[in-house]
Amino acid sequence: MTVSPAASRWTSRTVVHVVLVLASLYAVLPLVWLVTSATKSVGDFSTTGAFELGQFNLGTNIQALFTQENGIFLNWIGNSLLYAGLGAVLGSFICAACGYAIAKLDFPGRRALFAVTLAGVLVPTTALALPLYLLASQLHVVGTFWAVFIPLLTNPFGVYLARVYAEAAVPGEVLEAARTDGAGELRTFFTIGLPMMRPGLVTIFLFQFVGIWNNFFLPLVMLTDPKLFPMSLGLYQWSTRVTQFPQYNPLVITGSLLAVLPLVVAFVLLHRQWRSGLAAGSVK
C-alpha cells in the first residue's frame, strides 16, 4: 500500500507539531509551577494542587524572603550579580582575545593550543572542582571571593566560539591593511577585530552569564561563609531545612522565581544580537 505524498506531508507535519508542543510544555510547565507556587502560603502547599492557585501571598512571601536572617538574600543577589556580571564581561573579553589570537595570529603551537581548547570543552566543570580546590588551598584563597571568581573567567567553549566567529567575521585583508599602516597587534585587535566580533561577544557573554549564574558546585566546594554565597547555593541551603522547618518552602520557591528573572531579562535584551552571532558561528 502506497501513501500519497500529500498524506505523508501532513503526517510528518503533524508529528513535528506534536513534538514541538510536548517540548514547549516540558520547558514551560516548570516555570508555570514556579509562578503559581510562589503565590502560596505554607498551608496552601498541602491543600492545593501543583498548578492550583491558593491565597495570593506573593507580596508576603517576597517580604519574608528579604527579611529572613537579617536580609541575607540581598547579599546573595549582590554576590550573584557580581560573580555573573563581572565574570561574564571579563570572561567574554578573555575568550575573545584568545579566540582571535588562535584564528588570526601565526605563532608556534597554535594548532596544539586549539586542540587543547577543544579537549577542555569535553571536560565537565564538576571534574575540575577538586583540582581547583587544591590549587586554591595552596594559594590560601579558599573561602574568599577570589576562589570562586577567578576560575569562572576561563571558558574553553567561549574560546572555541570566539575562534570560529573571528575566522568568519574578521577578514584577514583588513588586518593586513591595518598592520601595513603601522598598527600594532593590540591596536588592531581593539580597533578592528573586537568591534567586528561584537555579535559573537554577545553570544559568549550570554553563555558565560548563564553558566556563572547557575554555577553551584564550585561555590559549594570553595565557600563556607553564607555572606559570600550566590543565590544558587544559598537557596540550596535553605531547601535542606524545609523538612524540619516548612516555613522555608515558600521562601525557597519565591527566591527561585526571582533568580530566574535576570536570565529572562538578559535574553530579552540581547536576543537579537545573540541569534545573529550564533547563526554566523554555525555557518562557519
Automatic annotation (TrEMBL):
The keyword Transmembrane applies. Residues 77-269 form the ABC transmembrane type-1 domain. It is found in: Cell membrane. The chain crosses the membrane at residues 15-35, 81-103, 112-135, 141-162, 201-223, 251-270. One of its GO terms (biological process) is transmembrane transport. Keywords: Cell membrane, Membrane, Sugar transport, Transmembrane, Transmembrane helix, Transport. It comes from the Bacteria. It is a multi-pass membrane protein. It holds the Pfam family BPD_transp_1. Its main location: membrane. SUPFAM superfamilies: MetI-like. The keyword rRNA-binding does not apply. GO terms for cellular component: plasma membrane. Belongs to the binding-protein-dependent transport system permease family. PANTHER family: ABC TRANSPORTER PERMEASE PROTEIN MG189-RELATED, ABC TRANSPORTER PERMEASE PROTEIN MG189-RELATED-RELATED. This is Multiple sugar transport system permease protein.
